[in-house]
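FORM 7B: Structural annotation worksheet

SECTION A. Query
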Amino acid sequence: MPEVVVRKQQLIVEEIFHEGGPPPDVPLRKAAMLSVIANPFAGRYEPEIAGFMEDLKPLGLSMANRLIEALGGDAKAVEGYGKGAIVGTNGELEHGALWHVPGGYAMREALGGAKAIVPSTKKVGGPGTRLDVPVTHIDASYVRSHFDAMEVWINDAPRADEMLVALVMTTGPRVHARVGGLAAADIKGEDGLR
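SECTION B. Predicted structure
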């Protein structure tokens, strides 16, 4: 399969000190790692593309490890995650789906075997396109307090023959989460859902 060619990367760390109510004891931290890569399938229909997922795995693992470092270096501090891709206009939505396995499994591996499926989104767009990357708890998708998102973009990406791939991690629930549902403390850890 083709070589993964990275044009640029961006690492974003956001700290949330309050949401209008009392400040939490520890600020919520969200981080996004973005990579802009050449789309080897841009401009044509290619029937066999799945092999490129294997080529993307080292990039996914590198990005996941950089996120953990950006959030303090302790994988145990990470409680939420998500992934996404923006495909340039000479590509197709299915090219963004190539990020599912290398992005999701990389985060699960780097975090020591997180159990929940990594939520995902993708779209086709030009430079400056924004993407809301969904976030859920790393071990149980039904933990309502961790339902969140992080908006990501790069002003000059993706160009028509590129893809922007993204990973997001968070250190906790939404600030002031209080709408009930399964609590993180009550996770059974059997199926990645509850």
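SECTION C. Observations
Strands lie at 6-16, 28-38, 80-87, 120-124, 131-137, 148-152, 162-170. The first helix runs from residue 52 to 70.

SECTION D. Sign-off
Analyst initials: ____
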